Amino acid sequence: MLTIWNDHQWLEMFRMKRDMFYHIISMLGPHIVRQDTNMRLAIPPDKKVAMAIMKLASSSNLHYIVNQFSVATCQLFKDITANKIIHLANPQQVIDSFNKKGFLNCIGALDSTHIPVLCPAGRGRAFTNRKGYVSVILQTMVDHQGWFMNIYTGWAGSVQDARMFRNSPLPGLVEKGHYAPGVEETVIPGSPGYISGHCLPLKPWLWKPYGGNITDPQKLVFKQCLSSCRMAVEYAFG
């Protein structure tokens, strides 16, 4: 197909010119080459990239695309984009970004939400949350952009967020200094930590808003900065 399409068909299928397509091939090709085996011939890099770009540039389903290129199975997203697109944020960049927003040494924002589920047989009361519907709790940590860095779920909707948090892997990891990949353990003031809402327990590495009527100027600034940074996790939940 790549050799018989004219320029108009090329633009229609890929939304880019040939020279841009082959520029992408030159960058990705060396990383996605596979060896032929006794069982099957490897899919050429240009065909892998062509299928991926066609999918991104059109509403065509995968069955149509692989038929166009005579490919029986398609691993194009895993082969081409997994390591480049699907990855955790750099921890130091997250800290630096929260620093710019006025909250120092923050590695992430924590919050929980309820995911509606079908009622488990005989356990409706346990899974019914305070709002009256059946759910499981999803605990998340996001970066400054609202991108998920860690999730923990499965607890019944009636369970308090603080109890689920205490039983999640995160506290144990943090106590060992494992805040996030690339963040070293420190014992001096200014260690990295997380921000959260009122419902989680206060810890040296877990910071939450002041409660009640606040009049102290420094506490007001702290609360405002924390609330501003926590908007990231609220945006993540939509």
Count of DSSP-assigned helices: 10
> Which structural class best describes the helix and strand composition?
alpha/beta
Strand order of the largest sheet: 3-2-1-4-5
Helix content: 40-55%
Q: What summary fits the major beta sheet?
A: 5 strands, mixed
Question: How much strand content do the residues show?
Answer: 5-15%
How far apart are the first and last residues' alpha carbons, in Å?
42 Å
N-to-C order of helices and strands = HHHHHHEHEEHHEEH
List keywords for this structure.
nuclease activity; alpha/beta; metal-binding; single chain; 5 strands; nucleus; HARBI1_dom; 238 residues
In short:
The protein is an alpha/beta fold and 238 residues long. It has 2 domains: 7-85, no CATH class; 91-114 and 143-153 and 168-237, no CATH class. It has 10 helices and 5 strands, in the order H-H-H-H-H-H-E-H-E-E-H-H-E-E-H.
